[in-house]
Amino acid sequence: MRLPAPLAACLLLAGCGGGDEAPANMTRDAVSAEVADVRVAPGQWEQRSEILSVEGPDMPRELAARLQRPRPPLRYCITPEQATEPARVSDAIARPQAGCTVRGFTMSGGRMEGRMVCREGAPGQVSTAMSGTYSPDGFDYRSRIEMPPPIGDGVVRLEVRTTGRRIGPCPAQAPGEGKQ
Description:
Blueprint: H1 5-14, H2 28-35, E1 43-55, H3 61-67, E2 74-78, H4 80-83, H5 89-94, E3 100-108, E4 111-119, E5 125-135, E6 138-147, E7 156-168
């Protein structure tokens, strides 16, 4: 199963790696090897992301409730041609944003997990651990994110669930529309 670009972006944003004892930073080649055999089914996909929990020092309940509100799903089409392209996820994970490193990323046998650590300047770092499942027709993973609060000391913790599934064939394009 090849991963669609939006899933690659989600993995990048959700972070990758496993636990505090995660191995040393991974090279681009090591990440590429982890996703070399991953494929995705062509068709229309729907992706949902929800914040399951949020906690932080002096966080108002209203803010936590607002962050946990449902978000509209993201829909995208994976063409048969895109489904046969090399996985884009390795580029997204192996080349994270400046200041980020990938540790302990694995993706095989229908399971994925890993950790990403990003240093966000002087106040601290953002650490994200994710684990979940994938198949040619879907994925489901949870991310645990820890970061410094915008003001003050302490740690803000989020738990996010991201799911995606193939929901059918791609819709027909109107004449003159470009491909996604």
